[in-house]
Amino acid sequence: MNTPFQFDISHKPDYSFLTVQIPQGKTIKVEASAMATMDTNIQMKTKFKGGLGRFLTGESLFINEFTAQNGSGEITIAPSTPGDLEHIHLNNETIYLQNSAYVASNPNIVLDTKWQGVTKGFFSGESFFLIKASGEGDLWFNSYGGIIAIDVKDAFVVDTGHIVAFTEGLSYKVSRQGGYKSLFLSGEGLVCRFSGEGKVWVQTRKVMPLLGFLQRFRPSKRN
Fold first, then answer.
1. Which of 131, 155, 180, 207 sits CB 3.0–4.6 Å from 97 for a disulfide?
2. 31 domain residue, yes or no
3. HSE on the CB side for 199, CA within 13 Å?
4. For residue range 154-187, what is the model confidence (pLDDT) as tens digits?
5. Which residues, other chains included, contact 142 with Cβ-Cβ below 8 Å and sequence gap of 6+?
6. CATH code at 48?
7. Residue in 78, 65, 74, 158 with CA at minimum distance from that of residue 111
8. Can you tell me the distance from the alpha carbon of 111 to that of 117, in angstroms, rounded to the nearest whole number?
9. Which structural domain, as residue segments, surrounds residue 21?
10. Residue 210 forms part of a structural domain
């Protein structure tokens, strides 16, 4: 079994900040540009991860690996999105993350992409890909807004813009909530219907309404 890293998450849930203690000779994988500080005995390597899937999502193509040499070392990690940060220790399990949620993990966690299909990708409001994280070890992921973990035992419905992550035991189908009028006029209407048994992590805010709110304050050209 992989020994979990010692870590601390501070400033939850608005501006979560992760501090990890890396034992001598051990390595942690971190999303590119997320490292804030590190001890001088920590060495960094950049590796290409995710292949074509990550390229098409528009997300970072690189994951940095940080290794403590000549003693243990401390690294601090700042996710790009203002919001919450969660930790899970996988025991030969699989979890799916929205494409921007990955923050860091044990090197034994395998990261891959899962094609949602054109319909699911379109209706989710995200990209056509999810990040598939599987194996044994620590995994950290973040959101815009706070994160709430919900145990699903039969069926559950979540607005697609609020989904952060879900476990492999759940099946899902994206559909409209109401008619096309609800979809295009009310801002509501796209939901993910989960079935089975597992866990879903939801975020308390959505990015698109924020962008819509900020749009009205942008300077506009006048004829």
1. 131
2. yes
3. 11
4. 999 998 889 999 999 899 888 776 554 444 443 4
5. 16, 79, 81, 83, 84, 85, 86, 101, 103
6. 3.60.160.10
7. 65
8. 19
9. 6-214
10. yes
